[in-house]
Here is the input.
Amino acid sequence: MKKITKFCFFLYFLSCTMNDNTRSYQLAKINKPKTSDQNKANSNKSVELIWEKPVLWIASEGSSMRIASFAIPYSDGSGDLSVIKLSGIGGGLEANVNRWRHQLNMESLTKIEIEKNIFSKEGMLGTFSIIQIINLELESSFLCAIIPSENFTIFVKLSIQPAGIQEVKDDFIKFCSSLNIPI
Here is the structure.
């Protein structure tokens, strides 16, 4: 018993310093490895939609509104792609395009002006619209798809430098075309 008591006193005095300093430490955060479910090309957490993801796209964390988020690598950097689903028309074409334009410090356009800049594509959910919004002064741009369905609208927005749009455009269109509802 004496040996244990002496040992405890020894540890107590060893751990004490002459100064009344408080020490704090920071440890590096260890990220958990992604599970195979997060890397599947045709699925997501919510199973609200299915898609075919281009091989080089990297699933990433997004906000709670996003159904999916991807980092889109290209030769000069990486873009950020988000997929959201809103009920009904989700605010409509004019409101959404002008909101995106304002995010790039650009003036609003009328519906007629917007429709001149849109082109249509066919996908698994039917015809959808694509628009490019570019602000060269900010070196920022969006490549956006508006995919209407019977009860909801899917919005896909890629934030990327203007030089990267042409490089990733085909993969963007293929991805948007593949969006579908699971059966």
